[in-house]
Amino acid sequence: MREERSAGEGRHTPAVNIERLLPTDAARLRGLAYQCYPPFYADLWVDGAMERYLEQSFNESHLATELADTNLVHEVALIDQTDVAFLKWHRR
Questions:
Q1: Half-sphere exposure of residue 72, counting CA atoms within 13 Å on the CB side?
Q2: Helix orientation angle between 60-68 and 26-41, rounded to the nearest 10 degrees
Q3: Which single residue of 14, 44, 53, 88 has CA 20 to 30 Å from 4?
Q4: DSSP letters along 74-91, please?
Q5: Which residues fall within 8 angstroms of residue 31, CB to CB, at 6 or more apart?
Q6: CATH number for region 16-90
Q7: What is the pLDDT of residues 20-71, one digit of tens each?
Q8: Under DSSP, is residue 67 helix (H, G, I), strand (E, B) or coil?
Q9: Hey, where are the domains in the chain?
Q10: What whole-number distance in Å separates Cα of residue 39 and Cα of residue 67?
Q11: How far is it, in rounded angstroms, from Cα 9 to Cα 88?
């Protein structure tokens, strides 16, 4: 990992790497979604609704289909080799 320092600052700025996900990464994406989504959005849902949304949107079968779709791109951001975020975008 390359360390970058701002002028006059001794803070560590970690490198962020972006990696494209493959159809075989469905379990990885599911785990990341379950890790990332609830801390920020749980208070917006009524009891049980968020869990149903996550299961519907991030079940491995559904994700494998989406990851194989050439019109969709899924990427993951990594810091220090650790998955920290994901995104999905549509090709147009």
A1: 14
A2: 110
A3: 88
A4: EEEEEETTEEEEEEEEE-
A5: 83
A6: 3.40.630.30
A7: 999 999 999 999 999 999 999 999 999 999 999 999 999 999 999 999 999 9
A8: helix
A9: 16-90
A10: 25
A11: 34
